[in-house]
Amino acid sequence: MSKSASSSLLLKQYKDLTDPKRAMPSFRIELKDGNIYVWNVAVMILNKESIYHGGYFKAEMRFPSDYPFNPPTFRFLRPLFHPNVYPKDGGLCVSILHSGVDATSGEAPSERWSPAQSVESVLVSILSLLEDPNPDSPANVDAAVAFRNDREKYNNTVRRQVEKSKEDIPAGFKIPESEVYAAPQTEDEVDDEFWYEDAETDDDSDEVDASGDDDDEGVANFDGSDDEDVDMEDSEDLVSGKRVDTNETSLDSDTETTLMKTSQDRKTLSAGREPLTPAPENEKVDLLRETPHTKLDPHETDI
Amino acid sequence: MKVTINRWNAVSTWHWDHAQEELCGICRVAFEGTCPTCKYPGDDCPLIIGDCKHAFHMHCLLKWLTTESSKGLCPMCRRKFKTATD
């Protein structure tokens, strides 16, 4: 029963991660012997500034049958010289893969596994750990010491391993060039353009303060959603497009009046500007363009 | 013109009165669907909403809370999960 629950969830995430339109180019994922609980993952570092750039690091990810209530395990199949990779078995020391039981690790519970994590969030954490080692909680002491004190040696060892890892690249496979999602050049392109344009216009048109501001705030809030002080109560205010910095005890009626006031302000503003530019039209477009941002949110939280 | 109605089919839709998210953060199935162990959506597989305003399929959340590693925390914000009272 629970087995079928975990396998259907894994299948869904597997499909998402291998869908050519949505897959992250840094990962190449296959099932091992068709087993949904064991994934063969190849991690590719596409960031040209990283010393791991060009590597094709094969790894194995195993999921418990009660996934997502317990975290998967992840280990590299070749030795990888990295402060947070165990030299013995290629296992990875990253807090997101630890369940909350382990009290000795000293990790904040906020960094540990929770069923709200996904394979994608784990992979993203691994990617960022590879590029940005954490020598303070080393799994490989030699690597941590070399990383700190003898960067030359560290880099040389890594470079050798990167070269070695290239032997694992399957025939006919080319490592992607770009870190950007490998979306084909179709309609999606138009979408990207749209967002880009949107950001641009926001920057250009500072006239209506409120619109520019709460855009930023909204995004910031969703990124740092574990910020305990920002309640979901506040997010209603965010969505409706007004102030964030008021007191916690935000009276709803108060909010409403403020909102009304601003919309009035906007009207006066645009009315005042009318002779100079065809402002009302612009305003309308601005407001329309703002709305897609709220649509963006689920996507953001996905990551 | 006179119209006589011989037959009509009524169709209705429903959704939970909780609009913040669409999917259960644990099983990633729509709230209006069921948790992986249930067959019928709706009252048979209700939602649970915490003081922190995070919602889940009740069965998914209870299953998480029975694990030792959950420490009784909300999977989303890791605050102590307390069912919202209202």
From TrEMBL, chain A:
Q: What is this protein called?
A: Ubiquitin-conjugating enzyme/RWD-like protein
Instruction: Supply the source organism's classification.
Output: Eukaryota, Fungi, Dikarya, Ascomycota, Saccharomycotina
TrEMBL record, chain B:
Domain (RING-type): residue spans on this chain: 35-78
Q: Does the keyword ATP-binding apply?
A: no
In terms of Pfam families, this protein maps to: zf-ANAPC11
- Output one GO MF annotation: zinc ion binding
Q: What GO biological process term is on the record, naming one?
A: cell division
Q: Which UniProt keywords apply?
A: Cell cycle, Cell division, Metal-binding, Mitosis, Nucleus, Ubl conjugation pathway, Zinc, Zinc-finger
Pathway linked to the protein: Protein modification; protein ubiquitination
Give the highest taxon in the source lineage: Eukaryota
- CDD domains under this entry? RING-H2_APC11
Q: Which SUPFAM superfamilies match?
A: RING/U-box (SSF57850)
Q: Name one GO cellular component term.
A: anaphase-promoting complex
Q: Where in the cell is it found?
A: Nucleus
The family database entries (InterPro entries) matched by this protein are listed as: RING-box_E3_Ubiquitin_Ligase, RING-H2_APC11, Znf_RING, Znf_RING/FYVE/PHD
Q: Which family does it belong to?
A: Belongs to the RING-box family.
What PANTHER family does the record tag this protein with?
Answer: RING BOX
Protein name as catalogued: Anaphase-promoting complex subunit 11
Source species: Lipomyces tetrasporus
